[in-house]
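Late entry, evening session. Most of the bench is empty. Finally got around to the prediction I had been postponing all week. Sequence below, unchanged from the version circulated by S.P.
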Amino acid sequence: MKVELLDKFGNDLMVINAARVSYGKSKEILDEKDYKLIKYLVEHKHTAPFRHPQLQFRIECPIFVERQLFKHQVGITANSLSGRYVDFSDKYYETTTLRRQSKSSKQGSEGDLDRPDLIEKMNKHNLASQILYSELCEAGVAKEQARVILPLCLETQFIWTGSLLAFLHFWGLRLKPDAQKETRDVAAEMLRLVKEIPGNPFKFTIEAFGL
């Protein structure tokens, strides 16, 4: 899996000025009073100012992770690689450890399952799917139809663009322990990249949201 931060628009100052425009005011330099204002906005759920900054990512991940990410739609738009037009059957997410099914309906998995024989069977299954897909394409079957036999661990890629608020909400949910591990890994990498933007432009906001 791979995550790239392609672009960003705005910063904490944009959030502050979006909030202060109600009083016809604006600022050019942040100070500690602005951090207190951001905390106040978060605590009292005045979230509109956080919709103004934008983030854009390119993400490569297996389809089963993409499906989890795409559950987040409000304030976010996506464009994905299309299996109708290109052959992207040559890259698969490789499972290295198995997890036990959780006994709680609130969590998908818990603890490891020591079954290397099953991992080997999974890898063979993926290879068989890849070979059959190639045979179908070589026989002249349309890619949009041949792809139906490909597994959910097939790697895809997409560009994901949305408001800062939308991604803050996403991180608040998908970084929780009960989120699927592979989805947590993508979410954590996205947040890391944002925190490492030179100058840390969203420092106050990210801290106020407890991230």
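Two things to note before I forget:
The chain has a mean pLDDT of 91.
Residues 116-138 form the longest helix (23 residues).
Will write this up properly tomorrow.
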